[in-house]
Structure formats: structure tokens, C-alpha cells
Amino acid sequence: MPVGIFRVCLVVITAIVNHPLLFPKENGTVLENTEEVIQKMKEREESLRLEKLRLEQEIASQEAAQKALEKAAKVVEKIEEEKVPWDMWTALSMVIFLLIELWRQDFQEGNWQETGAEEDDMAVLGKAFKGVAFPDKVILASFYEKRILGTTGDMARMREMVEGFADDLLEALRSVCNRDADMEVEDCMGVGSMYENWRVRKPFVCDLIVPFAPPEPYCFRSQIWCSSDSFPPDEQGYGTIKVCRADEDVTGCICDKTKLGEDMLCLLHSQGNTTRPSSEMEDLLCFKNTQYLDADQVMKWFQIAVTKAWNKISHKYEFDLSFSLLDSPGALKIKFRSGKSIAFNLTPVVQYENSDVYFISHFPRNGLAVDNPSSTHWFLTFAVYERRFIQLISKTLPANACHVSCLQILSFLHGKQCSLTGPSGLTNYHLKTVMLHLLQACPSQDWAPEKLEARLQDMLKFLEKCLHEKKLYHFFIGNGKVPAELGFPIIFQRAEPLNLFRPFVLHRDVYRKTIDTFHEMLRNTSALINEYIPLAHTNGIHKEPV
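Structure for Inositol 1,4,5-trisphosphate receptor-interacting protein, as requested:
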């Protein structure tokens, strides 16, 4: 018996000492092969078992010469009795191995402190959509007709008015700017929900982007996160813009990248032309002592230029123009003498190479959004391609397809819930991304108008799944199935998918607020819709089967 316990202790001590958790390799993040570990354990156990049998045979042979045959039977019984605790200790060792391995995996993933809370959240999420009282297609059709459809005409009139005024304002801006020193402003473009015809909640806000370029002889040279390893994970989706002379070498000389000694000079560049005066780069809206375009400097310049332009043409209009939000530099508001007002965003952007992808200086504040990494990091917007994709896919769908209707209803429900319980981490852009993924995944005939109820439930279930996994991938980035007709840059299709829900992994409080808001929205769906339809239709509500 003592010999057996000694062997078991030897096995346990050897297993723990040789486990990678206590003595990890230099690269501690590499996971060991579980099957290889189990195989080695089995081989070790087999070798110990053979050694045990050899020792038992030696003992039996010695005792056989000294004891009678009847005592040999007792020895056999004793060996059988010791086999039970031996198997028990072996099984216990295996359990210890498995527990240590599971704990190590949780620790390396950074979730070991939140495991219990996460399991509670997931248990709730898995049942979130079951048992929800959901309106049928008759109720949804009545709600859509009475609450949403009537806003289409208002949006069209507002777009026409805002676009006309913005064109006039930008023309005046060009006339007040110094063409030899100031940025060159191009024509504006409408993007977002107002121009994709799914905006539902008031106040209606038009989003206009204004491309601009530096004066001659300068040009912009950009670098995006997926073309370089210098961008950390929290800067995925961003890029930097360098202001260079048009005749400057694209790759740059090594003297710009290496610190030369005090007694060394570059044979290609003299000290006079490699170092530009700080004031010159600041005039080009660069960050202090760098060549990188500064988003804050750009917005200050743009606000000043817009103010000068408005002062030049204000006498032609019978309304006032002002900047409406301090935290959204491009937010403008037209105030009529009657008291009515119209809001719109006019945001400067920089074109990425020869595509319709743009670096955008600022996004209007929305929900619980996270701030930009720095003012020299510009977020890339694919809004122009998103609008084109919706237009392209709409041509293949049945007449009066329900894809836009689903997005409008979902946007209305979420916006209404946020007005009751406060903002959440979900934005209208997340909801649109859900629709884009389903448009690509579902057959065209599934978007017939009579299938509004089924597709709306699909969007809610898809959103629930994404919240459960904390993963909602950007529609274009890393998507190799983008239609070739769009002419989408291949570099973004080959990039790693970008998780739009990554902030939920990093910010536990934002995730909790978002989950609570989503659950409340599901529970209140019928009540929110019934506010806008006659009571005669309320008997069409049914429960989603459990």
C-alpha cells in the first residue's frame, strides 16, 4: 500500500511540474496541443503500469519460495484490493489536469474574472426572443403605412432644400478662400439614412460629406491600418494622412526614417530641404511638428471658412445659419423666422486614392460611441459604397421589397426605446449592417413585401446572435463576396474582418446597457407599435413560439 501511494504521488508531482502553466515557453501565448498532452500522459501511465507489474512479479516469486500455496491466493486478493485506490488516484490526477487546463485557457483569454457574469448574460440572451409578443404582418403593414410611409415626402423636400443651400454655401466658400494657400473644396455628396430612404425618426438630419485637397504643389499620401503592422488593434478601421510635396519620393529617403549622427549628412537631401518650417506645416493643417493632417485643425479651418462664406451670402436668405453642436463640429442648423429649423451635417473628408472610400474627420455623436485614438487618425467611411450596394441589390429584389421597411421599423423601435431608457451601444449603423448582411445571405424572393414579418424577425434574431457573441463584422471589410460591379478596392476585401462590436468586449458597462436596452425593446415591441395603429387591429398580435 505505501509503495502504491508513493507511485501515485510521483505521477501527480511529475504531471504538475511538467505542465506548461508552471514553466511556460518563451512565447507564453501559444496554446499547447491538448491531444499531445493526453497521449504523453497515456504513455507515462502505461510505462508506470508495466513497472508496477514487474515489481509485483518479483515480489510474488520471492514469496512463493517462502510461503505455501494458500498464502499466494491472499497475495492475489491484496493486489486486487490495491487496484481500486490506484485507479481512483489516476482518475483524480486526470481531473486535476483538466481543471488546470481549463483555468489556463480562461486566464489567457482574459475572461477568468468575468466567467460567472458572462454565463448569466448568455443564459438570458439565449431566451431573449422566445415568448415575445410580436405583431403579425397585418399589424406591421398598418403601422408602416400610418407612421413611416408618410415621412418619405418630407425627406425628399428637405434633401432638395439642403443640397441647394449647401452648393451655394460651398461656392461662396471657394470665393473667400485663398486658392494659393487654402485647401481646395470639391462638391458635396449626400450619404446615410436620408439618402438611402430609411430615416424614420425626427428631427431629420441630412449628412453631407465634402472632399478637399491641399493646394499645389502639395498632395495627400495616406496609410491605412490593413496595409501596415504599425496600427494597434484599437486603431483598426483608421488611417493616417501625410501632407507631402507632389515631387517628393513616395517611399521617402532613409534620412527621414533613421537618426543620423551629428557629423553625417544625406547626399540626396540638404538640411535646408529636409526640414520644413513648423509654421508652413501648421498652415497646411498638420499636427504640431509633424506632416500628418490633423482632424481638429481641419475642422477649425472649415468652421472659419463656412462662417466667412455665410457672411458673404446671408443677405440672400431669410433665415439664420449657426453651428448647432459643440461636440459635432460639422453640425449646422438653419433657423427660420417662423421658429422652424432644419439640421444638417457638413463634414470635410479626404479621398482614399482613386476610390470612393473616404477618411472622415469627425462623426456626429451617436449613442455611447468611443472617441477616436488621436486627431491624426482618421476613420474610413464606406458610405458611398453602401448606398451603391443597396441600389444595386434593390434591382434584383421583387417589387416593393421589404428590406428598407424592416430597417425602418427596427430603427424606429430602437430609437423609441432609447428615448425611454437612454442611449445604448447600438447605433443605426449597426442596424443597417445587419440588413446588409442579410441582403447578401437571403435569396431575392425572400424579400417580397408579404414576408415583412419573417424578415423583421430574422433581423432581430441575427442581431441577438451578434450581441450574444459580441461580434458584428463590417459588411465590406474582409468580405470577398462584394459584387464586382461596385468597383470596391480589393485591399479592403483581403483585410481581416473588422468587428464593430469590439467595444462591447472592452467596455463591460456599455455592453450591459446595450443588452438591457435590447431586451426592453423586445418586450415593448407590441406596445410601441400599438401607439400608432387603431385598436381594431390589436388582435393580430401573437406570441413567438417557445
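The domain at 128-247+280-531 is CATH 3.30.460.90 (Beta Polymerase; domain 2).
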